[in-house]
Amino acid sequence: MQPAFSSIVLSFIVPAYNEEQLPGQTLESIHGASQAIGEPYQETVVDHGSTDQTSLVAPRQRAMVVAVEHRKIFATRNSGAEVATGDFFFFVDADTVADRQVVQAAIDVTRRISVLKKSC
Fold first, then answer.
1. Is there a contact between 50 and 17 (Cβ–Cβ < 8 Å)?
2. Greatest pairwise CA separation for the chain in angstroms
3. In the CATH scheme, what is the code of domain 10-119?
4. For the chain, which residues make up each domain, given as ranges?
5. Percent with pLDDT over 70 in the chain
6. Is the pLDDT of residue 59 over 80?
7. Closest Cα to residue 3, out of 33, 38, 29?
């Protein structure tokens, strides 16, 4: 279950089209990675016009669903980013397994760059 914090740190945005078999695995891997890292997180599945049960899978996995009809991946990702509230955005394909080490490394590098920019 997602932590109940007032400030979301990680926002995972998952564009999906007719992916009812895949988002469950992807979302579970995001849950596992985020919980292992210990940062508050959110997951958003951006369903761009699926004709299957894609939009029903995400809520069962504790993720928000945004329905769009863009049919262009960049617009679909942007729709997810518009509702995301985290400090770090991760755009994850519906058939991707999130790895804790990769997510943690991305956060660490971004934080270091931010510190370097502030010190310049």
1. yes
2. 51
3. 3.90.550.10
4. 10-119
5. 90
6. yes
7. 38
